[in-house]
Amino acid sequence: MKPGQKSREIINRDSKVISALTRPYELVVDHADGSTVFDIEGKSYIDFASGVAVMNIGYNCKKVKEAVCVQMEKMVHCGFSDFYAEMPVKLAEKLCKMTGYEKVFLSNSGAEAVEAAMKLAFWYSKRNSMVAFYRAFHGRTLGALSLTGSKIRHKENFPSLRVVHSHYAYCYRCPLNLDYPGCGISCARELERTIFKRVLSPRDTAAIVVEPIQGEGGFIVPPPEFHKEIRRICDENNILLIADEIQSGGFRTGKFMALENFDVRADIVCMSKSIGGGIPLGATLSTSEIMDWPAGAHANTFGGNLLASAGGLATLDFMESKKLGEKAVEKGNYLMKQLNDFREKYPAIGDVRGIGLMIGIEIVKENKESDAEKRDLIIKKSLEGGLILLPAGDSVIRFVPPLIISKYEIDNGLQIFENALLNNSGI
Ligand SMILES: Cc1ncc(COP(=O)(O)O)c(C=O)c1O
Known about the structure:
The structure is a single chain. This protein has helices spanning about 5-15, 50-55, 60-75, 85-100, 110-125, 140-145, 150-155, 185-200, 225-235, 305-320, 325-345, 370-385, 405-420, and strands at about 30-35, 35-40, 45, 105, 130-135, 165, 205-210, 240-245, 270, 280-285, 350-355, 360-365, 385-390, 390, 395-400. By secondary structure, the protein is an alpha/beta fold. The strands form 3 sheets. It has a 7-stranded mixed sheet, sandwiched between helices. The longest helix has 22 residues, at about 325-345. Pyridoxal-5'-phosphate binds near residues 114, 211, 244, 247 and 272.
């Protein structure tokens, strides 16, 4: 995509002062409404990425805007680590009501929610190591990065806590070359068969950290038994189960927490992204018993920030009142069906998978090898056509539109996507 003059100028200025970010797409946004983003040149885009699964409630939500403005008039920040205020308490009460957990630690991002969960698990268990999964993504701060196993370049040059990685249930490319269901969920059992016998003692393992559906690693949906097996292994070894719901939570899969789809309950849950409605917000939740750590064991400056709490509370209210969980299932089924039809027509689409509106398609070569180049081209062509898509994993395109998206917008987005597929020679 050739950026216009205004966009080019901002991109040039950005490159002089902004550090570390990749940004392969030259899209300079200006404003957004519902499921549509407008760039600085005035061109509109249907958004199938939701700012990385953040804008579940859609852009420009009136209820959230009002709640934040009312709070802004009263007070922006109170120093919640030192003083009391009602708004963060209301938010925590709401989160507890929606999840059944009893205590909350509030923060500002996904990685922070994960760091709090890690510290809590280390503190509670008095153990020193953790287990996570290949292709997992839990964030870029050093603790969370130790858990992350998605791309090796994320980890280059950085020291790590003791985390051992094991197989996730990636059935499309089974790491053990087995077939479900005959496999007996061998990937989960590797923990007992190998890891806990030869690599890491379960007695040193504070927690197993898992994404209900792997996000950045490639939108990988495990079969129904996988999480139950992990839960059993945790229970038998007195290990805490930490669910990272940062991308999968917030009704994206129909349920408020995606692990509910698997009838499994974690001991500690990390949430962020969509629960703030676009305002930075993280939350780590657990039981009163586990979260009975002493005052001062963990703290931050902005956790419980009044604006973020008001925005978060209004977001959760909006999600519930608009039944976004039901919408995610309904629209997700519709989108999944269309994508499966595309898979029949276009051999470049090797796999379509997801729950609700957390859907990924895997772009492959004829021999089923991952085709990252083609994937990147399709995303770029879609962007030129007016559709925002983002990659995940080795060659996956993720479809995570706002949960308020209309069928009409899904159809328009898919039309652009299909044109991008067709314009991509060799598909
Ligand atoms: C599952 C998961 N955990 C943690 C994170 C990190 O969140 P943040 O980027 O807000 O630190 C992400 C971000 O994509 C994520 O998808």
